[in-house]
Each structure stands twice: as C-alpha cells, then as structure tokens.
Amino acid sequence: MVSKQRRSKSKSKMIMYGKSILVYCVLLAFILLPAAASAIASTPEVSVVPAVINTNVGNRFTINVTVSPAGNEIYGAQCTLRFDPSILQVVKQTKGTFLSQDGASTVEVKNSFNNARGTVEYGETRVGVKNGVEEPGTLTSISFEVVGTGTSDLELLDVIMSDPHAESIKTVVNNGSCVAGGGETSTETPTPTATATVETPATTTPSSTTPPADIMQTHTPTSSPTETPKTSIPGFETVLSICALLLVIVTKSEMRRG
Predict the structure, then answer these.
(1) Which residue spans within 128-193 are E strands per DSSP?
(2) Is pTM beyond 0.85 here?
(3) What does the pLDDT look like over 17-42, one tens digit per residue?
(4) What does the domain layout of the chain look like in residue ranges?
(5) Sheet with 171-174, edge to edge strand ranges
(6) pLDDT tens digit string along 162-202?
(7) In this structure, are residues 96 and 64 in contact, taking their beta carbons and an 8 Å threshold?
(8) In terms of Cα–Cα distance, which of 246, 232, 240, 169 is closest to 35?
(9) How far is residue 101's CA from residue 71's CA, in Å, rounded to a whole number?
(10) Is 94 helix (H, G, I), strand (E, B) or coil?
(11) The domain 45-198: what is its CATH number?
C-alpha cells in the first residue's frame, strides 16, 4: 500500500514538473521566435540589368540598376557605376521607382555622371516615413551611346543599402558588360557575369581637375553609414530542440527520484 502511494505521489510530481517545463518552453519560444523570424531575411542583391549588352557603334541603349531586398527593409541606397569611356558615353540618368514604390517621398542625394572618368553616381533616400521598402524595383536607369568598339565592363562600386535605422546592410553585387562591334543590336538574358559581396564602402578621393561640361549633378552626397553585421539568432528548429531537451532532462530526473 505504501509503495503504491509513493508511486502515485511520484507520478503526480512528474506530471506537475512536466507541466512546469512545458510552460517554460512556451515562454522561451515566445522570447526567441520573434528574433528568429527577423533573422530569416537574407542578403539583398543589386544588379545591372540586362547583364550583357551586344550592340554596335552609334547605337544607344539603357540599363537598369535594380535592387532585390530579399526580406530586408531598404530605406536608402547609393552606388557608382564604372564603364570604359572610350567605348561608352552616358546620355542621361533617370531616377527609378524602387524607393518610392509605396508612394513615399524620396530625395536624390546624388545624381551625376562623368564621361571623362567613366563613372555614374546615384544616391537616394526615403523621407517622411519610418519604414523601408521590401519589394524589388529599379533604383536608377542609365542611357548610353556607343562610341567605340570592344568590351566595356559595367561595374558597380561603393554600393550601400541602408535600413530605417541608418545602418548599412551587407549586399551582393551583380555586374554587367557591353560588347560593341559587328552584328545586329541585341540584348541577352540578364545573367550576372560577376558577383561580389560589399561590406565596407571604398573611400574615393575627389579629383582636383575641373569636371567636364557633360557632368550633371544635383545634391551633395550624405555621409555613408558604417555597416554593422547582423548577429545570427537561433531559428525555430533550435527553439524546439532546446524545449524538447529540457523536457527529457526533467522527466528522467523525476523518474530517478521516484
């Protein structure tokens, strides 16, 4: 009889402890899951589209610099595109709709090109709102005229994507190229030709020479935020594993006591 009572009390204690550990597991899940959900966002991509242009001397074409946020909130963006000025000359640069896709106002902090150096610069930020955008779109469009034969890289440099807290986000860059020569004008499927991971923007020293007359410029660029890499946080599977492990440990401990 005494043995049965002891077994009954032991069983009751096990049930009680089991319920307690279950409550702790649920609380732990509520604490960790929001953080785990925020870690789902992957690395955004900035791409030259189309990635490859086949054309002839005398023709004009337009490329887009597109952004795919990949789950991140993008509040501001800037980049520099480098090309071979002996093959290409910029005709114009046009603001895209990426940062204003939800109707928010934006400000161009940089919109210029230099056909002597072979560079195009663009920067834009959202204003008057607290959130960024998460849907892909075109940051800027650049129109070129082909003035020589050969292959010119369309290389993205100093790419910075920032979130609503003005913190820079690690970004994958997909460059492009233009092949100018014989054959009919055509555009190939936009497959990235080069990929690089941008972490810390390079510092450029302004040229002391007087810019050529074909440079178009608007605002002075704002200072670039320093990138702070995001810390990885345990995901949903980790939370469940921890909860299950705690439950097994407590159950075995109570069985030994019983």
Answers:
(1) 137-146, 150-162, 168-169, 171-174, 176-180, 186-187
(2) no
(3) 556 665 555 455 555 444 444 445 69
(4) 2-39+232-257, 45-198
(5) 88-95, 137-146, 60-68, 45-49, 171-174, 195-198
(6) 999 999 999 999 999 999 996 444 444 333 333 333 443 33
(7) yes
(8) 232
(9) 16
(10) strand
(11) 2.60.40.680
